[in-house]
Design a protein that fits this description.
Layout: E1 2-3, H1 6-14, H2 22-30, E2 33-35, H3 37-48, H4 56-67, E3 70-71, H5 76-84, E4 96-98, E5 102-104, H6 127-139, E6 145-149, H7 160-175, E7 180-184, H8 193-204, E8 208-211, E9 221-223, E10 228-231, E11 234-237, E12 240-243, E13 247-249, H9 251-256, E14 265-268, E15 273-274, E16 280-282, E17 287-288, H10 296-314, E18 324-333, E19 336-347, E20 350-353, E21 359-360, H11 367-389
Parallel strand pairs: 1-2, 2-3, 4-16, 6-7, 6-12, 7-8, 14-17
Antiparallel strand pairs: 5-13, 9-10, 10-11, 14-15, 18-19, 19-20, 19-21
Length: 390
């Protein structure tokens, strides 16, 4: 006897037999089919939230008539106690798609500990840390110093520290115009650097200064008590310090054996299937995706490519290679934005940028162009949010 999950019953009702692999279709034709009472409840729930157009009772009546689906006769209690005798440590699955996200690394900077983020917030995960950074900015004196310290690549959203510096500068220019922002960067260069630099000069004059790693930007030590950071060139003190640590895959990925010695998750870039744990597909920031940046838009596209690959694999077909795109807008002020786009494709087993694809905001343009790009940025955000969350 084959016990069917809710989505399988829905597929049978809709006549979408092609969703099943050849083996699955054979089992449906040759085995007795059963469902648990919870499936009936879930079908009714799907009807109530408008995911299906007919009631659960109607769907069940059709699949019972057309496919001989019956209710399982074993009690739920008997099933649970039988399951206790099995050596299960996880839910069984054919394939699973995971997006473990990131965690901060506190082993790269001397004297920098997780508890220090109460005083030196990274504001890179979660609402509370971001609000803490905002409160510090609101409390600092006019003429104060803000230190922003981006890490070396790879990390979540490469242009974000510089967008943050821009919007902090916008706030300071209106409320604390004598203040300064010092960016101490572990990198030698950063994304959209020419566009950011030109925008900073145009919008904020000399409020923002940037130092690369070899010019004193690499943070060696932090002191949350005294609100200082130390570089090869000396000690810098800030009224507000936004120290963004190095990152790696989220703890669940590292604990599960999905990450390698780099701390990130190697994957087959055709299917995003883990090269360490077969059957598990890793998408988003945790995955090692070649030259593709760790961004929300990248993750969104990876999810679609991976879903198509999983469907093909479950049907015992060869996955198709699709191009993957990334688009990234950055605000330098509420009405001033810049963008970069790119397309990527597989070359062998590597993901590479397609020559001539994508583009970047032009450098020397009228201010009206930046205003137009800010409107486009908001539309882009609304579109991807709708795509992901409905």
């Amino acid at each position: 006897m084959i016990h069917l999950d809710t989505h399988v019953v829905a597929w049978l009702f809709m006549g979408e037999i092609e969703r099943f692999s050849r083996k699955g279709q054979t089992l449906l034709e040759t085995e007795s089919l059963a469902i648990s009472p919870i499936v009936a409840l879930e079908l009714q729930y799907l009807y109530e939230i408008n995911r299906i157009s007919l009631s659960g009772a109607t769907v069940l009546a059709v699949v019972r008539k057309d496919f001989g689906v019956a209710f399982a006769t074993h009690s739920f209690q008997d099933i649970i106690f039988e399951a206790f005798s099995l050596d299960w440590t996880r839910d069984p699955f054919d394939r699973i798609i995971v997006a473990p996200g990131i965690d901060m690394r506190f082993d790269q900077i001397e004297n920098y500990k997780p508890e220090d983020t109460d005083f030196i917030p990274h504001a890179w995960k979660g609402r509370s840390a971001t609000l803490r950074l905002l409160q510090q900015l609101e409390s600092m004196p006019n003429g104060g110093m803000v230190l922003i310290c981006p890490p070396a690549l790879p990390y979540r959203c490469p242009p974000a520290p510089y967008e943050r510096a821009s919007l902090v500068a916008h706030y300071l220019s209106q409320h604390k115009p004598r203040s300064k922002i010092l960016i101490l960067d572990a990198k030698e260069q950063f994304p959209k650097q020419a566009l950011f630099s030109a925008g900073w000069k145009s919008l904020y004059g000399r409020m923002i200064e940037w130092f690369n790693g070899s010019a004193g930007g690499l943070i060696l030590r932090a002191d949350a008590k005294n609100m200082t950071v130390e570089t090869e060139f000396g000690i810098e003190k800030g009224d507000v310090i936004n120290l963004i640590p190095a990152q790696w895959a989220g703890r669940i990925a590292r604990a599960s054996g999905l990450s390698d010695e780099s701390g990130w998750c190697p994957v087959d870039l055709l299917t995003f299937e883990s090269t360490l744990l077969p059957g598990i597909h890793v998408i988003g920031d945790a995955a090692i995706a070649g030259v593709m940046p760790k961004s929300g838009f990248s993750a969104n596209n990876q999810a679609k490519v991976t879903a198509a690959a999983v469907i093909a694999l479950l049907k015992e077909k060869e996955p198709t290679s699709y191009p993957i795109s990334n688009t990234c807008y950055s605000f330098l002020a509420p009405d001033y934005a810049i963008y970069v786009t790119a397309e990527y494709q597989l070359s062998g087993r590597e993901l590479v940028k397609i020559n001539g694809s994508g583009g970047v905001s032009p450098l020397n343009v009228d201010l009206s162009v930046r205003h137009s790009e800010a409107v486009s940025a908001q539309r882009w955000y609304d579109s991807i949010t709708q795509d992901m969350f409905g």
